[in-house]
Amino acid sequence: MVSMALLHLPLSSSFSFHGAGLPSTNYKPSFTMLKYVVIERGMCIKASIQSGDVIVRQCANYSPPLWKDDFIQSLHSKFKGEVYRRRFSQLKGQVQMLLKEERDSLEQLELIDALQKLGISYHFESEIKKILERISNKFLKKDKEKNSFYATSLQFRLLRQHQFDISEGVFNAFKDEMGNFKTCFCEDINGMLSLYEASFLSTKRETVLEEAKCFTVKYLNEFIKSSKDELKVEIVEHALKLPLHWRIERLEARWSIDIYERIGTLYPILLEIAKLDFNMVQSIYQEDLKYASSWWRDTELGEKMSFARDQLMENFYWTVGIGFEPELSYFRRMGTKIVALITMIDDVYDVYGTLDELKLFTNAIESFNLQEASGGACTAASLTIATFQVATPLFSREPTAFDDFSDLVSPTQAMPIGELRFSSQSPTAVVDSTMNNDETWLWGQIKAEARQDAESEPALASYLYSTILSHSSLERSLSFHLGNKLCSSTLLSTLLYDLFLNAFSTDYGLRSAAVADLRAARERDPACVSYSHCLLNYKGFLACQAHRVAHKLWNQSRRPLALALQSRIADVFAVDIHPAARIGKGILFDHATGVVVGETAVIGNNVSILHHVTLGGTGKMCGDRHPKIGDGVLIGAGATILGNVKIGEGAKIGAGSVVLIDVPPRTTAVGNPARLVGGKEKPSQLEDIPGESMDHTSFISEWSDYII
Fold first, then answer.
1. Residues 6 or more apart from 448 whose CB is under 8 A from it?
2. 207-226 and 230-241 helices, crossing angle to 10°
3. In Å, what is the CA distance from 77 to each residue of 67, 281, 325, 388?
4. Whole-structure pTM over 0.85, yes or no?
5. Cα separation of 265 and 376, whole Å?
6. Which CATH superfamily is domain 69-78+288-395 in?
7. d(C-alpha 270, C-alpha 258), whole Å
8. What does the CA dihedral 398, 298, 335, 565 come to, rounded to 10 degrees?
9. Long-range pairs for 53-61 at CB < 8 Å and ≥24 separation?
10. CATH number assigned to the domain covering 102-266
11. Does residue 65 come out as left (phi exceeding 0), alpha (psi in the -120 to 50 range) or beta?
12. At 142, phi and psi to the nearest 5?
């Protein structure tokens, strides 16, 4: 029931709206699926052995996973909408007011304790810290013997949990002349429970807390046997199973919400916000789990390596226990992957591999050039994934099909993490097969530049690894980088990564445009020192690639998402391009700050546009109302082009110009209002393509009104 409570079953709440429920599905989970996910499993007693040509494989008889992918993908929550976020914000404000009210120290401590057990204290960390600081200062000044047993125990636990300095000596006041805790306090069950929880926060050589642990455990067990109060007995039994701060916080929150409802003395507002928070966070967990389950299904490792533990749910629980906060979605997704792979590697050694195979496997791992990946660049994820590039061909085939390991990888050749070198017969490729020759060359160049930068500047090694070197293709690197750049507290980086990667990987036009834009920046901008520099740091390039995806979404009628993406692009890069605007290939947004492109604007191929350029309308006119920029055009800094005007192929617009009428091909328009160089009747013709040559000033000798 634990897994169902955390990930599937929402809490009933007085605050609800009519919305989509669980989707209809033919999947019917059996009763066994409601069990706790950690079940007893058979254990292996010895590893596989080889006798001559016969390999005897051992099996640990691991049970198949209870949570199937089709069931996981069917999980659904209605607690995602803006209406729930607004209600939560209202409740949060009311709780903040509650925390600011004047009340005695014990009431404040009980309120903090309730927030902690309900799993919502992380929303009020600053308020809680201020209260505990006041209580700590007050506690140091007053006579400690006047504090009640319950208040002192609760105060000690909360202060020490929040890393305030407090001595175990505060409990000496509750001892008798013999140095033992007074038995009269055994009737105070709340005090005994608080002292029990406090005793698990001891540091080295704190004997008083060890005595307190023995004292409370003894009398709490006696209370269970003698008490007829079923609710209190349930609370005590729960505490004795595991101390509070050792538990998974979200599971404890689920249990505490039920208990506080049954007690009936808690502020109703706290229960409402706790339920709403639990359900909203649960919806995020469901998306994280769906992502991890889809990844696991696509790897097919559960089927290919059937001897190993297939326990995605247990792996996901581990990440929830480490980082339950909703903003740690990326950690949970990546952490689940890492633990799943490490678990399988563990079973390769413990269960399946023979000694000779494991020696080869170990040599392959040790042959990774970890020195080159130092300085933070070598992560557990990269090592694990690289290891599985070797492990999967080795252990997923029948023994008779196993070739000599040297055919798969050369153990004498040092290999950077993530760059395993396979023989030509190997079906595994380092670079995505969808990449054409131009993409392949450019991606290889970018990775080579990143490696060189990581060696020359170790402080950037980890950054370069996570953004470039750990990825197998340009679209993956670009998707990862854009996702991290454009994410927010409500628009998660993992969601954006999936969005960008799906667009780039399925649309060759987007990938070829990105390649052309990278080449344009490298060739036209003398400040662009490398392709990797442009990929990581040129906000004009990044804004343009993000716009291309937004434009794709717009054409797919996913317009709210396209507009949300436009807003994030404008916020992060200071570039405002309407998602309906059409942009060609080989585009250079040089500096890019302040560029505005309207809804019906069209920009051709090989166009260069500098900062603070506006391609706008002339007022409230609807329909086709924005400029059309031909191929090879150069638009100088601060230029403004308004209305449905055409800028001809190969034209040049001078810096600061205001253009309100058409500009013929291969001509130069300068000024406010803009005029053609050479006159309207016989304007001077440009020989080169200004969008590629980037020549901003060739017209000056012919511009009679040019004055210094």
1. none
2. 140
3. 18, 10, 18, 35
4. no
5. 51
6. Farnesyl Diphosphate Synthase (1.10.600.10)
7. 13
8. 160
9. 55/354, 55/399, 57/307, 57/352, 57/399, 58/351, 58/352, 59/307, 59/351, 60/307, 60/309, 60/347, 60/350, 60/351
10. 1.50.10.130
11. beta
12. -100, 165
Kindly state the tokens that stand for 321.
């226990």
Structure tokens at 402: 């196993």
12 contacts 261 by C-beta, under 8 angstroms: no
* All structural domains of the chain with their residue ranges: 69-78+288-395, 102-266, 434-573, 581-707
CA atoms within 13 A on the CB side of 187: 1
CATH superfamily, domain 581-707, is Hexapeptide repeat proteins (2.160.10.10)
Say what the pLDDT of residue 303 is: 81
Answer whether the bond into residue 326 is a cis peptide, omega within 30°. Answer: no
586 SS3 class = coil
Q: Is 247 helix (H, G, I), strand (E, B) or coil?
A: coil
Query: Which pLDDT score, from 0 to 100, does residue 428 have?
Result: 32
Long-range contacts, stretch 9-12, CB < 8 angstroms, 24+ apart? 10/77, 10/78, 10/79, 10/278, 10/279, 10/282, 11/254, 11/257, 11/275, 11/278, 11/279, 12/275
> What CA–CA distance (Å, rounded) separates 580 from 480?
24
- Cβ atoms < 10 Å from Cβ of 619: 8
* C-alpha distance across the termini of the chain, in Å: 81
Helix (H) or strand (E) holding 391: helix 380-395
User: What is the distance of C-alpha 555 from the center of its chain?
Assistant: 27
Q: In what order do the strands lie in the sheet with 675-676?
A: 588-589, 608-609, 634-635, 652-653, 668-670, 675-676
The number of beta carbons lying within 10 Å of the beta carbon of residue 512 is 14
Is there a contact between 634 and 660 (Cβ–Cβ < 8 Å)?
no
DSSP element (H, E) containing 536: helix 531-537
Q: Residue 149: CB partners within 8 Å, gap ≥ 6?
A: 174, 185, 188, 191, 195
Which regions of the chain are under pLDDT 50? 16-46, 143-145, 369-387, 389-434, 706-708
Q: Which amino acid is at 217?
A: V
Rg of the chain taking only CA atoms, in angstroms: 33
Token output for 426: 């190997």
- pLDDT for 200: 93
Side chain identity at residue 89, one-letter code = S
Taking the CA atoms of 401, 406, 409 and 411 in sequence, report the sign of the dihedral they define: positive
The span from the CA of 679 to the CA of 82, in Å, is 57
Phi and psi at residue 627, to the nearest 5°? -65, 155
What are the tokens at 304? 């290919």
Residue 626 has a CB neighbour count (10 Å cut-off) of: 23
CATH code linked to domain 434-573:
1.10.3130.10
CB atoms within 10 A of CB 243: 16
From CA 113, how far away is CA 417, in angstroms rounded? 46
Q: Which of 373, 369, 408 shows the shortest CA–CA distance to 391?
A: 408
Packing angle, helices 105-117 and 125-141, rounded to 10: 140
Neighbours of 661 (CB within 10 A): 12
Q: How many helical (H) and strand (E) elements, i.e. helices and strands, does the chain have?
A: 26, 17
Q: Which two tokens stand for residue 657?
A: 């110009």
Q: How far apart are CA 137 and CA 158, in angstroms?
A: 14
CA-wise closest residue to 369 among 407, 334, 405, 421: 421
Residue 372 phi, psi (nearest 5): -70, -25
Q: What percent of the chain is helix, strand and coil (3-state, nearest 5)?
A: 55, 5, 40
Residue 651: which H helix or E strand, with range?
Answer: none
User: Where does 170-267 have alpha helices with state H?
Assistant: 189-199, 207-226, 230-241, 249-263
Q: How confident is the model at residue 352, as a pLDDT?
A: 78
Reduced to 3 states (helix: H, G, I; strand: E, B; else coil), residue 622 is coil
